[in-house]
Amino acid sequence: MKPRRHLAFALVFMAVSGAGLPMMQAHAEPQPTPIVIGSKNFLESRLLAEIFAQLIETHTALPVQRRFGLAGTQLCFEALKRGAIDMYPEYTGTGLVSILGLPPLPNPRAVLNRVRSEFLHRWNLWWLSPLGFENAYALAVPRRQAEALGLRTLSDLARVAQTLTAGFGYEFLQRPDGLPGLQRRYGLTFQHVRAMQQTLKYRAAAAGNIDVLDVYTTDGRLAVYDLVVLEDDKRFFPPYEAAGVIRGETLDRHPELGKVLGLLTNAFDVATMRRLNFRLQEKGESVEQVARDALRSLGLESSTTPAVTPNTSSSPDKSLVPYMWANRERLVIRAGEHLGLTGIALILGIVVAVPLGLLLERRRTVAEPVIRIIGTVQTIPSIALLAFMIPIFGVGALPAILALWMYSLFPIVRNTYSGLRDAAPAAVEAARALGMTEWQLLWWVRFPLAAPVMMAGVRTSAVITVGTATLAAFIGAGGLGVPIVSGLQMANTTIVLSGALPAALLALAVDGILGLVERWIRPPGLPP
After folding, report:
1. Phi and psi for 7 in degrees, rounded to 5?
2. CA–CA distance from 465 to each of 13, 171, 483, 508 (Å)?
């Protein structure tokens, strides 16, 4: 391999891997001191967070950054504690039981006062005034099931639960105010329990695949799917008043936020939230438009704020190609973010893994144990590794890049070591007989001969990284996982595919480009 090819080899890696970085920086660079608003990964949380964001943008001069779709209560709360976000919508019962770990209280005012005092004392976090509605957990059954079995209360359900199949959300299965607590209070034991995404549970119930499901009392689909909400006759579930939770430091820096967000005090009731949720869940309207309409109905939309054209591009009935064309600018931005995340992670992987592979080839006695240790990272579920990063690095691009970097290491280290170790022994011995030093052998003989094997490791790592990066959306890092997650929440295959197909094409494109690089750097005479 000629010296210019060594240099070009590195430059092409950097160009291919970092192609998306400028685009990601251009679109993701935060404005000066923005108010960062987070949300959980279900539609009502996104809607409330968007209402907060638009209200702040309308009534203050503060820039707002959105970090929506964080994967669950604990991720949102950890992000808030660390300052990765400034506020997010939460529910008082969730704060009391799931975050504080305290027993449920039946009185809404008592619950609000308790979470306010505890959050302020422990973490300097402020609960704002409630928004006027409760979104409580409940169990529901199809009406035909309720009538056939005479189900009206949860105690009624406990009598026949052993013959029924339940479908519950992932978080509900673990929360103390979810299935574990219900089992203790009511003695509920189901024949089968299936963990399911929220939207899919409704369809499974309608198809008769499950008999019982957990629901939110403000869900707009309760009437659509003809479900009967069972009475909590033993008052197990605590009150779940919706309210914003905000960092004390944020209020100190921007005291006007308290007054502005206070405009939403008691602004919504359960019926209103069901209508708003229905528009998101069944009509496929955008969160931005529904939030805008909600503020307009309250007289809180500024006359200087440009109107938003109703977004029908997310309609479940719209075919894939028209949907992607209508959202092409947004998808290009997401693709740029995705390529930036994977490019940075892959560059870091090459920078670390190739020298490590070289070192291990010189220390073969420890090579296999070290490679196996690095390989154990591949066995960690991606979402678990991302969640582990939150308490340390917060949310956003940094923890996502670090997680992707960890996943990128193993194929490159393994192939670098194997390629150098097995590089044409006869050629190496001939070069050594000619008087080459070990470093000359490495640079002029072994490295060129091993380059195709090393490139195969880089290609494998690149494809893994592009695929895994879709999960970065769960921690607010953007990328093509955003439409995938949004589509899953809405059970909208079109939206899911609008993120999944570009991600797959991106993986193929990156692999194809690296394949061309591999062919170009292959020394003459080596078989393809």
Report:
1. -65, -45
2. 15, 27, 18, 12
Secondary structure, 3-state, 121-153: HHHCEEECCCCCCECCEEEEEEHHHHHHHCCCE
Indicate the DSSP class of residue 33: S
Same domain, 265 and 337: no
| 527 occurs within a structural domain | no
318-321's contacts with Cβ under 8 Å and 24+ in sequence apart are: 318/494, 319/494, 320/494, 320/497, 320/498, 320/501
CA 138 to chain centre: 25
Q: Running DSSP on this structure, what letter comes out for residue 230?
A: P
Domain that holds residue 191: 137-229
Whether residue 70 has pLDDT greater than 90: no
Domain CATH for 261 = 3.40.190.10
Tokens of residue 413, six digits: 């280290």
Q: Do residues 272 and 339 share a domain? A: no
Whether residue 322 is contained in a domain is answered as: no
User: How many folded domains does the chain comprise?
Assistant: 3
Residues 74 and 146 in one domain: no
pLDDT digits (tens, 9 = 90+) for 424-443: 565 655 656 566 666 666 66
Return d(Cα 141, Cα 188) in angstroms, integer.
15
pLDDT digits (tens, 9 = 90+) for 34-64: 999 999 988 999 999 999 999 999 999 999 9
Q: Do 189 and 249 have their domain in common? A: no
> Taking the alpha carbons of 230, 231, 234, 235 in that order, is the dihedral positive or negative?
positive
Tell me: do 53 and 190 sit in the same domain: no
Q: How many CB atoms are located within 10 Å of the residue 397 CB?
A: 21
Long-range CB contacts (< 8 A, 24+ apart) of 498-501? Answer: 498/320, 498/323, 498/324, 498/327, 498/331, 499/331, 499/334, 499/470, 500/470, 501/320
